[in-house]
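pasting input
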Amino acid sequence: MSFEEENEAKASFDDVYVAPTPHGYIAAMAESGYQIGEQARRYCAAAARLLKERNGAALPLQMLDVGCSYGIGSAFVKYNCSFDEMVAFFATRAPADYRAACAATRMWLNITPPACRIRTVGLDSSEPAIRFAVDAGLLDGGIARDFELAGARPTESERAWFRGCNLLMSTGAIGYVTERTLDVVLRDLGKEAPGEFGPVAVVTILRMFDVGPIRKAFEDWGYAFTAVPGVRLPQRRFTDAKERREVLAILHQRGVETGAWEDDGRHYADLYVASAPEHLDVLLSRMTSVHGTDDDGGKSPFIHR
Ligand SMILES: C[S@@+](CC[C@H](N)C(=O)[O-])C[C@H]1O[C@@H](n2cnc3c(N)ncnc32)[C@H](O)[C@@H]1O
């Protein structure tokens, strides 16, 4: 079954992905109990810390968020925002008018000290989402392109952005984004200054998707790619009975056991990491060291069964 066929089973949020401001997206995600970005935050932040430690201050830390929407991963990793904070900000403090929303967001970020020194670049097929994220200061750089389209090739300046990034993250986007986009990105990722550690990736993938083509894309570019043992993250609730029925049918057809997971009415994703083969063990151990903890070291309220 292809990603296109699997996507048919999922509810469509296409309208809110392309609005001029994030209000509709954030509200729709809150409504559906969307939480995968926040769930993945501690793992992306741990990978960032690892790169910083290994590369030292000389190599800048630069993250590429693939399928970034309005710069959501950057808000999580760079600014350590919680999803609830974003929901509250866009519901009450960010005006609907584009310019006013950008100005209010910039002001909000100005009083939110970055959690770590990191530059963030986003890639998304939604031109309005990228424009807002850059204009509002959520992203340092943005690439509005759809590399799933047949024959789509990156420009030299887009390739330069990819070469400058040494951390790839992606939450909630695989399925829309497939091996076609990854093939474009991984060709150049981190090539500008790989350091001793090389680039790493932290990616969530819904269990309904066949991970084989994604694994192959990473392996074709020399990465070791693996699921982080014991980490399974809730993404959002099924929007209706039809979505639930069709997603469960796909999972069961593939022989995936859903009793302890999707049967509770939610999509679940597994967490995958990729790195140079010789660094995979240390990357995995960083992932498991933040497993089950909040960023502040407290016990996670989230599910890691
Ligand atoms: C569920 S949202 C996830 C957004 C964000 N990563 C998060 O977790 O909040 C999926 C995103 O994938 C983007 N997308 C869909 N097709 C894409 C493509 N071909 N290339 C890049 N991004 C795409 C959508 O525009 C949307 O922003």
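fyi The pocket of S-adenosylmethionine is lined by residues 17, 36-37, 67-69, 72-73, 123-126, 129, 146, 148, 171-173, 176-177, 181 (CB under 6 Å).
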